[in-house]
Amino acid sequence: MSAAHSLGHPGIGGRECNRTSRGADSCDTLCCGRGYDTSPVLVTTRCRCRFHWCCRVECQQCNEWREIHTCKVRPPQQKVKPPNIQGRVGCPSEASNSSTNVHEKIWQTSRQRLPPAPDEALVILAERATRAF
User: Fold this and answer.
1) Where in the sequence is the signal peptide annotated (predicted)?
2) Total-model pTM
């Protein structure tokens, strides 16, 4: 067990990241240069939703395979870090293994859900409209 795990911090390995992003949620930033693994995941969503007047929405359930990207776990014996990630926010320094509030905020951002699919957005809008009456 790593020092981060013993303190209740999840660490870098296993973080979900965005492979195509150049922002704070990118795999390069969140994984601190360790690389990432890609895995298929079956996601079930509401789809083909229809609003019936008045006032209900009926949807089907659709399954879709998506790829998720998670940071690789670096074995504890490795201590070398590529020079191009020095000073990056959220990456542990070589001198210290302590986590910071910024590090935790980036971790929480990386775990947020995907935005709703268009059909799910329709359901949300229809439900809000029925509450207004």
Assistant:
1) none
2) 0.46
